[in-house]
Amino acid sequence: MADFYQNGVITTLHNIADRSVEDIEAELFEFNKTRPMALILPSLYSELQGPALSGIIDELTHVNYLTEIVIGLDRANLDEYKHATEFFGKLPQHHRILWNDGPRLKALDAELAELGLAPKELGKGRNVWYCMGYILASKRSESVALHDCDIVTYKRDLLARLIYPVANPQFNYEFCKGFYARVADGKLNGRVSRLLVTPLLLALKRIVGHSEYLEYMDSFKYPLAGEFSFRRDVLTDIRIPSDWGLEIGVLSEMHRNYSNNRLCQVDIAQIYDHKHQDLSIEDANAGLSKMSIDITKALFRKLATQGETFSTEVFRSLKATYYRIALDFIEAYRNDAIINGLTVDIHNEEKAVEMFAQNIMTAGQHFLEYPMDTPFIPSWNRVISAMPDVLERLHTAVEEDRKEFAAQEVV
Predict the structure, then answer these.
(1) DSSP string of 245-282?
(2) Could you tell me the superkingdom of the organism this chain comes from (predicted)?
(3) What are the phi and psi torsion angles at 214 (to 5°)?
């Protein structure tokens, strides 16, 4: 059970009363009558073969307050798309699948690419962006939640607590970030958040000095959580990265577009586990190595937009400062694990910190060599300005795919 302490500049909504999920869902059912709700599920086809997504769908069949579910399906051929319509067909809610590799959506993507407006990288960011566009196109929902499809410990109270802050009409939040302890199977997980992001933010504070943005970022208990919720109007002007900097980029956009009192974070799970990425020490283009580089670059880019000047010397000092702070964090997390009867591999923790320290320099060098690098996907406002009928065409493409190729009729 979490405490009730409010720290930082972002409101924290705790789980301090063990309120039943049925009680929360009863309220959400009423909220949905005036503030209809949606869920976005960005999925790889391969996730349909694993136990996590099957468990998620089973849980969602008991959710009665959602107006729609939007599924973004990546890396699927025609037969796999047909299978996906069967797989998701058990959902009782109105739902639609964006077949991102289908001919219709690929043709629309190609037209946007000619205008310089399509996502440049494949991956979760691109998938989420198109799902956000479909939410705008469908006009069915006012409050939207998004979570990953590889959560092996998923229970439906995660969704209920995640969407509640933006669904409750008495609250004024535009955006809510989920958080949780990365604990599962007796182990302390979440290395990138624990050993990179938090000590890096502290190191940046020492190097850069006072920064309202850094104080804001450091207020989030788990900034890399892939679970968040938002009001529909957030979607029109947000620019999200297409790389592993997605979560940091979304938080940065919220900082740019809204005052802090319109944002919050909420405790959504006591136990949380999902697919783990390899450390990939030997390959900077894979696993946690690439993730750490993309995240670090995202922070550098945001600080640069606020007038901070970086150089090789600054990055060297930042690396040294980060390394010392991160080593202290390893001891702190080791002791936290021990008192809770959990295990943590100190050797692997130090290997991770050493790689993250090196990747700070790698990210810094890339930042200096490619100052015009812009990994952000354009906002939907900009896309609509260039192609006024884009949302209608996106909606039509999804409907026509369903009618022509769906293996069975779905709601």
Answers:
(1) THHHHHHHHHHHHS-GGGEEEEEEESS--BPPPP--TT
(2) Bacteria
(3) -65, -35
